[in-house]
Amino acid sequence: MGKKVLIIDDSSTMRKIVTRSLRQAGLDFDTILEAGDGQEALQLLAKEGVDIILSDINMPNMDGIEFLRQKSANAAIKGIPVVMITTEAGADILAEAKSLGAKGSIKKPFTPEQVSETLGGLM
Fold first, then answer.
1. pTM for this structure?
2. Contact criterion met (CB below 8 Å) for 122 and 52
3. I want to staple 62 with a disulfide (CB 3.0 to 4.6 A). Which of 39, 57, 89, 107 is the partner?
4. Which helix (H) or strand (E) holds 68?
5. 68 and 102 Cβ atoms separated by less than 8 Å
6. DSSP per-residue string spanning 9-38
7. C-alpha–C-alpha distance, residues 57 and 92, integer Å
8. Which domains does the chain have, with CATH numbers?
9. Residue range 4-56, pLDDT digits in tens
């Protein structure tokens, strides 16, 4: 069975860009799920298992940091690796994300090579 990825971003355009980058990077995902914010992602994860999550940080309703907090408190989804995709260059925000379990980050704009390099070790 193929791998599943969840892309969390409030911009549908950015979700499409991430999806295209995953394909261009040659990463083998059979299923690509999308959520518009952390709340939507948590609802989706209650029904669907995924292998990896790519999440924006700045989103309305529930941002990526709060999503990580709630995810880490839920034993059923706690172990799913998360990579942050963000315009946030702030070391403090990325350090907080890592302290909450994020496995890495990709800075926007990014190339398929950067996506492959970051995700390759997590797959």
1. 0.94
2. yes
3. 39
4. helix 64-72
5. yes
6. -S-HHHHHHHHHHHHHTT--EEEEEEESSH
7. 13
8. 4-114 (3.40.50.2300)
9. 999 999 999 999 999 999 999 998 799 999 999 999 999 999 999 999 999 99
